[in-house]
Amino acid sequence: MLESSASSFSSHTAQNDLCMKSLFKESNSVPAIFICSGAAFNTLAFILYRIRLFRSLDANVTFVSSERLVHVRLSSFLEKNNILSNFQLGFRPAHSTQHAINYLHEKFVQALDKKEHVVAVFLDLSKAFDTVNHEILLCKLQKYGVRGVTNDFFHSNLSNSCQFTKFGETESSRINITCGVPQRSILGPLLFLLYINDLPQASAFQTVLFADDTRLFLKSNCMSTLQAAVNGEIKHVDDWLISNKLTLNCSKTKFMVLTRSHELQKIKINVVAGAVEESNQVKYLGVLIDNQLKW
């Protein structure tokens, strides 16, 4: 796991670097948040030293080059230790939208060939990247192995961040930032993947994720059994979203029924926010798919 080590951080270095918050935690545009891991980053001490060394230079230039090194190390650790869910295909090496579309299509075809019915739910999350709760994110980083001094560093940079607007010589009041991953940062998507990583475990749905693009489906030979199962499992998904302070956009969330049966009663799916609308055609990662699996 990603644990802190003496070789990566001396107590003196860690103490000084944790005091760097004034460099990155206040911004008149979008705040940049520096994130580090632990023993997996053999060059981390050098990176932090380099940031201190060039503090007198342009902070943005220093930050961008440093965060790329951190991103490479963290990505390598996550992939090497299989921490990211196998159902997450977004923002990962050797994965693309084509993989996600092909996977979903293949699962649908296999079920229909077995004369099973399929109910697929296409979730739409409202401003998912902007509503990542910092406190919950820090707990999840701890769970995945970011601990000790390293977790303190995360905490320092994610806590008490603020932003303000400046026009000419006029500045607005500071507003504390308690949610959202860093924008315009290569670290932002990676943090979001870790935040949503345990969603597939929340229910019995088969899940396909592409970042926040979430597709859930169940299959059965009996439609009434399938409807009951879908409504039961969608409640678990609702509970997960509420616990993680993410919001389901019910008006844009759709479900689709795929079957080769010509006589089939209409089904209903309900979430906390209301009834989910059935659609015969949905757009998935830019591709239109209908309930006859025509493109």
Overview of the molecule:
The protein has 295 residues and is an alpha+beta fold. Helices cover 38% and strands 19% of the residues. The chain contains 9 helices and 15 strands. It has a 6-stranded mixed beta sheet with strand order 8-9-2-11-13-12. Strands 1-4-7 form a 3-stranded mixed beta sheet. A two-stranded antiparallel sheet has the order 3-10. Strand 12 (269-271) and strand 13 form a beta hairpin. Helix 3 (44-53) packs antiparallel against helix 4 and helix 6 (134-143) runs antiparallel to helix 7 (148-158). The longest helix is centred in the N-terminal third of the chain and has 22 residues, at 59-80. It is elongated. The two termini are 43 Å apart.
Could you name the key traits of this structure?
295 residues, alpha+beta, three-stranded mixed sheet, 38% helix, 19% strand
Brief characterization of the structure:
With 295 residues, this protein is α+β, with helices and mostly antiparallel strands. The chain has helices at 11-18, 21-24, 44-53, 59-80, 97-113, 134-143, 148-158, 187-195, 223-243; strands at 26-27, 117-123, 125-126, 161-163, 166-167, 170-171, 175-177, 206-210, 213-220, 247-248, 254-258, 269-271, 274-278, 281-284, 287-290. The strands form five sheets. The chain has a six-stranded mixed sheet. A three-stranded mixed sheet has the order 1-4-7. Strands 3-10 form a two-stranded antiparallel sheet.
